[in-house]
Amino acid sequence: MTKGGSATRPVVALTMGDPSGVGPEVLVRALSDPMVGECCRPLVLGDLTALERAARLVDVALPFRPVGDVREIRPGERGIPVFRPSRLEEGQIPYGRPSVEACRATIGYIEAAVHLALEGRVAAVVTGPINKEALHRSGFSFPGHTEFLQHLCGTPRVVMMLAGPRLRVALVTIHCALREVPERLTAAAVEETIRITLEALRRDFGIPRPRLAVAGVNPHAGEAGRFGTEEKELIEPVVRSLDAVCGPGCVLGPYPPDTVFTRAYHGEFDAVVAMYHDQGLIPVKLVHFDEAVNVTLGLPIVRTSVDHGTAYDIAGQGKARASSLIHAVRTAVSMARFRSLAQAGIPG
Ligand SMILES: NC(=O)C1=CN([C@@H]2O[C@H](COP(=O)(O)OP(=O)(O)OC[C@H]3O[C@@H](n4cnc5c(N)ncnc54)[C@H](O)[C@@H]3O)[C@@H](O)[C@H]2O)C=CC1
Ligand SMILES: NCC(=O)COP(=O)(O)O
């Protein structure tokens, strides 16, 4: 990551997430970490009451500066700009207990950040954790950020990737019940996930010739059809057809899911395509919980997020670590740089 003068550092929008969870405290911790200020100029979208409370909790002095327009963010100016902040009552944001007002405000931060990114006013969006159940109870109709961002950006298909230093995993199916996975695993879904992941590895991660492993879904990748037929009938034909288009060594598999992640972790592949949420996220969170970053691939904007949730069990205790958020900011800045180099026709 290159350091630059303040004018050359990109503006990155950071949404606070659910004010009742650990989002505000990990945000103020991250904002007070020099690594964040060295790589970008942060623009916060959140609630002033929650931010000030979090700053007191983790004992950092951060002067927040409400701004109504991104043109008010001038290089070198003191204070952390907060874009059109809400000002909820402390009683509306009890730790660990979401309120309807807080949930509505949370959705507003995400919407505003995405619009700023679509207008090209910020280089990337980094989101804090939301509580999906609480948002749904307040009328939010999307399973999570990923699907909401897809909707806001009008993108036909997006892919969730969890990226750690040694293991990156992209998912074919995301937020659904396990029993719905088989019907959602179509050839089109597998193929689009692979294509979007390959494009992102090249364009956003600067890997010119990625090696992508595709996991099977059944034990031992189906054991030649004895433990399931999805590999033979669905995944393998897609892998073979893409192998022919992308060239040998680019798309590989389907491999037995119980060993493909360790092979990737040891450097054999740049990423693994997993068939469902927990197949892919358990290995990443096991080895990289403090460093992994959630990245939405396939959007016209750069979006990263923490790998953890709202952690209501520890919210307000000052224990939550900000390392995933710091990695999310650094990854977003790096992706934005690779994208702008690619747009300028300069290889990354
Ligand atoms: N990026 C996002 O918006 C995400 C949101 N979620 C949502 O968060 C809510 C809670 O999800 P859970 O499954 O309970 O996962 P969680 O990640 O909130 O908590 C799991 C465990 O990890 C610990 N933990 C989480 N973040 C931590 C941190 N920064 N430092 C130290 N320990 C930490 C918690 O204390 C808890 O023991 C759910 O509604 C889920 O949908 C979950 C993952 C990502
Ligand atoms: N398990 C990852 C997760 O739930 C985050 O989802 P999203 O809110 O980023 O779509």
Automatic annotation (TrEMBL):
It is found in: Cytoplasm. The lineage of its organism: Bacteria, Pseudomonadati, Thermodesulfobacteriota, Syntrophobacteria, Syntrophobacterales. Its EC number is 1.1.1.262. GO terms for biological process: pyridoxal phosphate biosynthetic process; pyridoxine biosynthetic process. The active site is located at the dimer interface. The keyword Cytoplasm applies. It comes from the Bacteria. Its cofactor is a divalent metal cation. PANTHER family: 4-HYDROXYTHREONINE-4-PHOSPHATE DEHYDROGENASE, D-THREONATE 4-PHOSPHATE DEHYDROGENASE. It comes from Desulfacinum infernum DSM 9756. This is 4-hydroxythreonine-4-phosphate dehydrogenase. Pathway: Cofactor biosynthesis; pyridoxine 5'-phosphate biosynthesis; pyridoxine 5'-phosphate from D-erythrose 4-phosphate: step 4/5. Coiled coil: none annotated. It catalyses: 4-(phosphooxy)-L-threonine + NAD(+) = 3-amino-2-oxopropyl phosphate + CO2 + NADH. Pfam families: PdxA. Its main location: cytoplasm. Substrate binds at residues 145-146, 285, 294, 303. Keywords: Cytoplasm, Metal-binding, NAD, NADP, Oxidoreductase, Pyridoxine biosynthesis. A divalent metal cation binds at residues 175, 220, 277. It is an enzyme of class 1 (oxidoreductase). The keyword Amino-acid biosynthesis does not apply. One of its GO terms (cellular component) is cytoplasm. One of its GO terms (molecular function) is 4-hydroxythreonine-4-phosphate dehydrogenase activity. Belongs to the PdxA family. Binds 1 divalent metal cation per subunit.
